[in-house]
Design a protein that fits this description.
By secondary structure, the chain is mainly α. The protein is about 70% helix and about 0% strand. The chain has six helices and no strands.
């Protein structure tokens, strides 16, 4: 399609594939629990449900086990008063990087540009981090103890992660 200046406009096409939807879901999980998204992804690669040619290390039982241990540690630490808000700069950067990692891996598994997946995963993590913090604060205002809210959030993360990755395989 020509523009006013005689140049052709490039047409950007957005293709929704299983990797797109899985990236949105796992990116959101990264926004809630930064280590859970890579741990769930590594488990999926280790089981053979997902092929990750660019990151074969994800299929390693040691890496999968380490990521799972870190995810469990994060869930335990989240119940303490010492953990900063998920939207504080260091915590938010970690969540964005986690979302970017899973997005890039998922897009590459479909032969697509990993950069697109990284951006989508990071944006999904960003949105979920702020939404999760808002919901947690709203629950606290209603008088629900924070450890109870954190445990409910853990359950949501694990249930959603399992369902997202099971639908993929």
């Amino acid at each position: 399609m020509p523009s006013l200046f005689g140049r052709r406009r490039s047409r950007v096409e957005f293709k929704v594939t299983p990797a797109t939807l899985t990236t949105l879901g796992l990116g959101a999980i990264a926004g809630l629990r930064s280590m859970s998204a890579p741990a769930l992804l590594a488990r999926s690669v280790q089981r053979g449900d997902l092929h990750a040619p660019d990151l074969p290390v994800l299929g390693s039982p040691k890496i999968s086990g380490l990521l799972t241990l870190l995810a469990v540690g994060e869930m335990i630490a989240d119940k303490t008063p010492f953990i900063p808000a998920r939207t504080s700069a260091p915590a938010l950067i970690g969540r964005l990087l986690s979302g970017a990692l899973v997005g890039a891996t998922l897009f590459a598994s479909e032969g697509r540009h990993g950069n697109s997946g990284a951006v989508l995963g990071a944006l999904s993590a960003l949105a979920a981090a702020y939404a999760g913090e808002g919901l947690r604060l709203a629950g606290a205002r209603k008088g629900i103890p924070d450890p109870v809210l954190a445990t409910l959030e853990d359950r949501l993360v694990l249930t959603l992660g399992r369902r997202i990755l099971l639908k993929r395989s």
